[in-house]
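PROTEIN DESIGN WORKSHEET
SECTION A - STRUCTURE
LENGTH: 127
C-ALPHA CELLS:
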C-alpha cells in the first residue's frame, strides 16, 4: 500500500539531483586550472520533471530505449562554451553559486521528505 508514494520519490529525485549538481561543481572547481577542461552543469530539476499535457508521455534516455519516432533523448549534463584562452570554461564565482543552489535544493528535498513523513504519520495515527 505504501510502497509507491510519489511524493517520497520526488523528494529522493530532488536530493539525487542536488547531489549530482554538487559533485559536478566540485569536479569543476578541482579542474579550474586544467587547460582545455570544459565546465559541466546539470539542467535544472524543474526541466526534468514532466508537466502539462506531456506529463505522462513516454520519454527515452537514449535513441534505442523506446523504438518510437516521438522519443526524445534527454541530456542532463550540459557544457557551456569555452571562455578562457587556454580552453578552460570554469568560472569560480559561478561554481560558488552552483554550490549554494545545490545546498538549497538538497535542503528543499529534505523539507519535502519531512513534510511527507509528517502527513503519513498523521494519516496513520489513531486520533
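SECTION B - SEQUENCE
RESIDUE ASSIGNMENT:
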Amino acid at each position: 500500500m505504501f510502497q509507491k508514494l510519489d511524493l517520497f520519490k520526488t523528494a529522493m529525485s530532488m536530493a539525487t539531483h542536488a547531489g549530482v549538481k554538487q559533485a559536478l561543481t566540485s569536479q569543476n572547481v578541482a579542474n579550474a586550472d586544467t587547460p582545455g577542461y570544459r565546465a559541466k552543469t546539470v539542467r535544472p530539476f524543474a526541466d526534468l520533471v514532466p508537466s502539462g499535457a506531456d506529463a505522462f508521455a513516454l520519454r527515452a534516455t537514449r535513441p534505442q530505449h523506446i523504438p518510437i519516432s516521438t522519443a526524445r533523448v534527454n541530456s542532463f549534463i550540459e557544457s557551456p562554451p569555452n571562455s578562457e584562452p587556454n580552453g578552460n570554461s570554469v568560472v569560480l564565482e559561478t561554481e560558488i553559486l552552483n554550490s549554494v543552489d545545490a545546498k538549497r535544493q538538497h535542503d528543499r528535498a529534505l523539507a519535502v521528505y519531512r513534510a511527507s513523513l509528517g502527513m503519513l504519520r498523521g494519516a496513520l495515527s489513531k486520533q
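SECTION C - NOTES
The two ends are 21 Å apart (CA to CA).
Residues 108 and 126 are 29 Å apart (CA to CA).
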